[in-house]
Amino acid sequence: MPKNKKLSLLVCGGAGYIGSHMARMIAESGHDVTVFDNLSTGHMEALKWGKFIKGDLRNPNDVAKAFEDSNYDAVFHFSGLIVVSESVEKPFEYYDNNVTGTINLLEAMRANGVNKFVFSSTAAVYGDPVMDMITEDHPLKPLNPYGKSKLFVEEILQDYAVAYGLDSVCFRYFNAAGAHPDSLIGEAHKPETHLIPNILLSGIDDGRKLKIFGNDYPTPDGTCVRDYIHILDLCDAHLSAISYMENKEGAHVFNLGNGQGFSILEVIKASSEVMGNKIEFDYEPARAGDSPRLVADSSKAVRELKWQPKFNDLREMIETAYRWHKKPAY
Ligand code: UDP
After folding, report:
1. How far is Cα 127 from Cα 145, in angstroms, rounded to an integer?
2. At 270, which helix (H) or strand (E)?
């Protein structure tokens, strides 16, 4: 983030899990933030920082309104549908929200002379991994419409960089986890599909027994291995991306993960230690489209963005999530 310069930043999807943490971090870093969100999956209660404009990216008139009264230095784009299984059933909704919506946003940026963009992509662009530690040059073969919708946008951004000089950073997130340690905001998806929230919710409410999807994967204990990265570390990288684009033109991609893989059973054990509870679970058939192992090599982000994740301990991440899930504000 450029020092001593107050920036004006637009956060699309700022009422959601990652976007709300981002809006807060921007405001607390002394910059102006405007949130644009249709509140389809986001939460009004998470909108405690900056200005809010309600609107839908699929509607170009709504998007134009978001640019009416501000000259943004950059745009962060967290809006989008994120449930893999749903994307298989509803590809139109995924391409419409995630691709058409993004094109509308990029066009509004062009019309208003804004040329710095930070995009939430995903490890799902890699598909079935052929590397233990995935680097950015791993083959791109997404297995579902969700992953494809993110990859299409990555490619569009490369074309926009060449043709229109629009600079961008795409972050391929591994598994975002945790919440702000003061629990004013946190993770609240309805329905909740993510592993750590589901483990914690089943530990808090005995009525919600955890399901583990698949136990015969080619991993040490048969359950899927993922790389968990704390939400504040993710947001930190986004701020660094703004400084990065000050000196580097073009479209750039970075993995964001911790570089440590944990199986579902290991995450359950760590959660159980944090909660002081035993967590009951049933094995269910594997979910379609799940990769056995997704672990990031994030050394490019460490090197080029001068970024360093601060939450390196899975328990510490789970603790922040638990604080939130015990008493969620929404
Ligand atoms: N998972 C599970 N039970 C749940 C939620 C998730 O067994 O209630 C598994 C899921 O199949 C995957 C891993 O946990 O192997 C991480 O899933 P999540 O949805 O949190 O993130 P993803 O890696 O799919 O983005």
Report:
1. 11
2. helix 264-275
User: Which one, of 72, 140, 162, lies nearest residue 112 by Cα?
Assistant: 72
> Structure pTM?
0.97
The best mutation among 264, 281, 283 to test binding of ligand 1, ranked by most ligand atoms within 8 Å of the C-beta, falls on: 264
Reading the block at residue 203, the tokens are 């530990």
Note the pLDDT of residue 208: 87
Distance CA 58, CA 42 (A): 16
Whether 21 is in the pocket of ligand 1, judged by its Cβ within 6 Å, is no
Question: What is the H or E stretch that residue 321 is in?
Answer: helix 314-326
Give per-residue pLDDT as tens, 131-163: 999 999 999 999 899 999 999 999 999 999 999
Residues labelled catalytic: 146
* Ramachandran class of 214: left when φ > 0, alpha when ψ lies in -120 to 50, beta otherwise: left
What is the maximal distance between C-alpha atoms in the chain? 56
Burial group, residue 42, by CB count within 10 angstroms (0-12, 13-18, 19+): buried
Residue having the nearest C-alpha atom to atom 2 of ligand 1: 212
Ligand 1, atom 12, lies closest to the CA of 224
Determine if ligand 1 sits within 6 Å of the CB of residue 15.
Answer: no
* Rounded Cα gap, residues 315 and 36, in angstroms: 33
**Residue closest by Cα to atom 11 of ligand 1:** 213
Nearest atom in ligand 1 to 264's CA:
14
Residue 147 is classified by DSSP as H
Three-state DSSP at 300 gives helix
H or E, element range at 22: helix 17-28
Task: Name the token pair of 158.
Answer: 């490369």
Q: What is the pLDDT of residues 242-282, one digit of tens each?
A: 999 999 999 999 999 999 999 999 999 999 999 999 999 99
Four-point Cα dihedral 35, 2, 255, 310, nearest 10 = -90
The verdict on the CB of residue 195 being under 6 Å from ligand 1 is yes
